[in-house]
Amino acid sequence: MSVLQQSPAAAAGERAWTPVCRYADLSPDRGAAALVGRRQIALFRTFDGRLYAIGNRDPYSGAYVMARGIVGSRGQEPTVASPMHKQVFSLASGVSLDDPATAVPTYPVRVVDGTVEVGLDRAA
Amino acid sequence: MSATEERSATRRHVREGCGRRVVVVGYGPAAHRLVEALTGNGFDGTVTVLGEEPRPAYDRVALTSYLAGRTAEDLAYPAPAGVTARVGTRVTAIDREGRTVVTASGEAVPYDVLVLATGSAPFVPAVPGSDLPGCFAYRTIDDLDAIREAARGGGPGVVVGGGLLGLEAADALRGLGLDTHVVEMSDRLLPRQVDEGGGAVLRNHIEALGLTVHTGAGVRAVEAGPDGRAARLVKPDGEAVEARVVVFSAGVRPRDELARGCGLAVGERGGVVVDSGMRTSDPHIYAVGECALAAGMVYGLAGPCLAQAEVAADRILGGAATFEGADLSTRLKLLGVEVAQFGATSGALDVTYMDPVAGVYKKLFVSDDARTLLGGICVGDAAPYDTLRPFVGRDLPGAPSDLLFAGAGGDGIDLPDDALVCSCNNVTRGRVRAAIAEHGLTDVRGVKECTRAGTTCGSCVPALGRMLAESGVDTGRALCEHFAYGRAELFDIVRVRGIMTFSRLIAEHGTGRGCDVCKPVVASILASLGNGHILDGEQAALQDTNDHFLANIQKNGTYSVVPRIPGGEITPERLIVIGEVARDFGLYTKITGGQRIDLLGARVEQLPAIWKRLVDAGFESGHAYGKALRTVKSCVGSTWCRYGVQDSVALAIALELRYRGLRAPHKLKSAVSGCARECAEARSKDFGVIATERGWNLYVGGNGGFTPRHADLLAADLPTEELVRLIDRFLMFYIRTADRLQRTSAWLESLDGGLGRLREVIVEDSLGICADLDAQMERHVAGYADEWRATLEDPERLRRFVGFVNAPGTPDPSIEFETERDQIKPVLIPLEAVSR
Question: Domain with A63 in it: what CATH number?
Fold first, then answer.
């Protein structure tokens, strides 16, 4: 097994890794939604090949659409803008860059043998 | 004031135990400014404004824009806090002894300080018939409402008076669709501002717009038609001019009747006499604005009237400000023609430049040693005004003949700090510079808020922008943090360098990885320049969600589907197909304002199946999701309508098919009306066409939405081929030069030189780019392909249309519907879980 990328938060043990799709299924600088259990996750592959996973729910509108936002950068921070009303979130931290009191959840994500896996707490 | 009077005043003051009571009679711009200056400077007494009009003060300088679609609310000044403003309250008398004013209802309102700001009344010559129905003044919003009502149905209209206001009124009548005449007593238009040569050039401009000008002509009578309304105006020589609407704007008279009634001193030719502190012959009473006779004259321009109001306010606050007269320099645009006058209108020597072909006339007056600038007149090109006006009375900054061509930027000419930049509000360049430096201002809005410059007539706003730039402020052309260019510059970079990808553009001309602002802009530029399907290759990642899924996102994350229905014409069979598709996929249907049908509630994964059915039945994308041509609406036209004069449906279909898929800085809407009744509402569109007996009238720059604007007539009575060529160029010039998300209306208003400039570029080809614009449009037309058909044919493009990448067929469980009026409706998504 070769682990291409692993989120630093992904400590071993209490996490369940769920395979969701092939890495090649994701387009550069674009997102895709995944359904893991009852949770909706927005996966992003950025131009440099990195992967990010955040909650798919836009906290401002309540709609599950974050995966359909435009990917970009603000300073050094990789970002996605909600397609609903364009609030910009950090892909790394999930925090809204325009309104730091608002955030979306982030999830650990890794690639194992070409398959993208998302890590969720077992309790979830 | 005698000692006894003074004591009694003090007693009254003490007895009432409160701050002073200021009562202002009249509620126009001068009254508003006075009240603002009082409350804004800590006045602790009470302020009561009694206005005769049924509404608070509004911007009279912008009055004509009311007919062009701005509302009374748009024009209204914000009410200052802590002031009692009573509208619809006419004051009938002043009791100076008792220090009260009496209203029409008999109420007595006491004052300690009274300010007369009663303005002026239009002068209507006492000729037979001048009071007939159909005769109007041009001063208030009520006047304009009445004129608009009377102008319904078109016909001839006459403006009596060819001064500033008269030409404003003529523009308004023309805008209302009347065949407009201007009757002016003097031998030229704008007799106070321009000389004979300038008047002749101005007249040419105005006649070219289709107006008829009668100079050296007064009015003998207005005669009624059989309906008892004005029907014609008779000139002193007996010639009659047909006129359903007659507007008198032959000057104004100060409203000084209250002052006369209570024995205040008034001028021989009217106006309440005031001293340099704006105080009347009664020390408790001030007069400001158009009712006041200050420094020997009655001022009618906004700038001096507002300055008087500030002086009076300062005096009431205990200051010592004075009004010593004001500069009557003017720069404005009348009927699309730039006119400016500054300083003297004659001089020992003059230097004149005249280009009758371009319609430009410029003249400078200089002292007999040719060293001092005395004044100038500009018609057709007022660019030297901003630069040269500060030099009036000073040494010329260059050779007079060079100065005639001094651009608006005043390149190479150093302006003194005490030069006025905003004459309406008396703001110098020094003050603007200081404000920029002290407050770290970065935009024109900040300068306006801080200094008031540019808040009245707005003609100095470009100069403010240049001053910001001179101070080293980046005036916001930069699109976002990734590109230091505006959209128009990026467009040129992409076009000239033949750049085909965002990666190359940002690597060579930007920084970072882009964002939701610059990516869609570049996507649109690449699409406008015909770079293939918008979902191919790297372009796909640039698209907004709507373009990415070729559908419009709705509040619950579902999408709407809008097939193109060119011109709004549709067969019963196709209507049935739309009905069946909506029924089979459980979609909500609604007729749109653009004469097509919106199908709402489709989930991402349903879109290809829905479109397969539509494309198979002959439909194509309606681009409702794109910053692109939406629809060309039409009325039924001459084929069916008994009033129609041209086949509006056929033209609308042809235009919609020609421009379908054209990506632009913002959405584009159009309409074609088959006659002047304008049932298709073409003048509210980006480009609208109205049939005439002889061809088509083309209107551009209209808008509904947030800031409604009636489109301007670009050209009249065009044959179809010429019409199409002009629209081609209009659209391509807009696409090349507009800002991001700038509709044609805002673009046209921001275009330096406005409609005249647009005409120069796309009709007269002044930039030599028309062949290029034409070729670009031909490429668009030839390269058009239906985006939805092309998507359905390509598995790679279809790959994105899944709800979940790991469960492609599973519908999004968060999307739920309930039923309302027999159709689906989204169940509101609860927002309680917002993470904070």
Answer: 2.102.10.10
